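Lab notebook, bench 4. The sequencing result for the construct came back, and we need a structural model before the next group meeting so we can plan mutations. Quick request posted to the team channel:

Model the 3D structure of this chain.
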Amino acid sequence: MDLGNWGARMSEAQKKQIKDRLKNRLNKTFVLEFNKEASVFEEEEKLDAISGATDTWGKNFSRGKQYKNVKDNQLVQSQEFYGKKFLVVDKLEPINWQLGNETKQIGKYTCFKAVASVPKDNLEWYNFSWNELRQAEASEGENEEIEMTLIEAWYTPQIPVSHGPAEYWGLPGLILEVSYGDTVMLCSELQLNPDEKIEIEAPDKGKKITKIDYKETIIKKMTEMRNNRGRPRG
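Done. Here's the predicted structure in token form:
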């Protein structure tokens, strides 16, 4: 994390306090449940260690419960945006993985490296930033260049399923680690064949919508909020 010019005016104690607080907010725990054909990926909600509250603002732009079916090539994801529930139903985005021979050990599993380059918008289509909106408005009417993101994944053929966390799938083994940009997802615990039977079911509540339409809905709403905030009251 780079605090830039803002951090240059802080003492080391202040920097540590800021970093500890942000670490608690930015470190998230997810659970991936899967069978041979389908998986469910969902965040474990936790309280902010300092404020004692959940991040209400962040929930509007965070990943909801995600169901992927690699056999049917289907994505179903529940999203909530300012109190309104959506059910995003779409196809899985194909990833053109380049398989390598490099290996490393994650827990007791031997993992192989794979890399891919995908459009950034495919990874966090549920998210929003003001900078993204400004860039879209500035390039309106122009041929916008697609921003690509490099992904590095580590998968284990010892668990021969094509699942992984978030948008990642399609490798000849379970993905135990994946990184892109400043984000890293790492499997910290793996339980195979649990005693309690797990039902892998897609979410089913909310207005059905595609990923593209959901993104447009967010941008439209945030643009309205910005414009209304700038109007004088009378």
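The helical segments are 4-8, 12-26, 56-59, 130-138, 211-229.
Will bring this to the meeting.
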